[in-house]
Amino acid sequence: METTAGPEQALTEKVLKAYSNIENPRLKFIVSVLIKHLHACVKEMQVTDDEWEFAWDFMERMAAMTGPERNEFLLFADVIGVSQLIETLNHEKPGQPVGFALVGPFLRANDPFRERGASIASDDTTGTRVRISGRVFDFETNTPIEGAILDTWQAATNGFYENQDPNQPDYNLRGRFRTDENGNFEIVALKPTAYPVPTDGPVGELLRAARRPPDRPAHIHFIVSAPGYETLVTQIFVNGDPIIEDDAVFTASRNMVGDFEKEGDHFRLTYDFPLKRGVSIMPKAPIAA
Ligand code: DHB
Ligand code: FE
So what's the pLDDT on residue 94? Predict the structure, then answer.
């Protein structure tokens, strides 16, 4: 501790002490680290009264844009890289064959199960189709995993997920698929298109102030799970998309790109998902069923 501890330091110590009786050791640790760093932040920034008013008003405006359809707080965490940091911290190991991506705000609970080879796009959904096939297998033993579940979702060509767009049928461009006895799956989807994250809220203000483009590279989401294996939360990007290097939410990476090959009026993509042994947990869906 500094020898010239002033009144601010004494206050921080007093607050830390006031929260030192939390019973749950993990919660106690989290609260103390939070106090220490938030106090340090305020001191380093020399936050003025006006700035503090701006800050809580900003949070109030984020809350006003948050509900069952949308979470501005999650979006904020995404655009400042915190969500991807948490993914990296928990899941990225050296030699990771397929990268972990953030879940993002658009996973919806209870995506419908669909038959092998079925399309997640309704017939009247515009856009070029891609037939995606591949294999889910044990990363260490290379044995196929039968009955693995692939939960997939993507935006339409207008940039909207089904829940944001009254013109799309319920659960359009969403679905769950099961692997067969050889660990194989086949899905028809749209060739993904690039689009921006929502910028009509406080997060948009931040992006404009930073002169950061709000664009996410074209992608399709996958959560691949099976009992006894660590759940793989990932996205597939289109090889050659320049936005991959400048993803608004810092998740796109080289270990998540697929080669989309033109085949007549559609595309084909072969993509395998190796799973590591571990605990099978499903992330919470930000959008309710
Ligand atoms: C975010 C993630 C997405 O997958 C998406 O399509 C839009 C936004 C996000 O992390 O905020
Ligand atoms: Fe997305």
Answer: 77
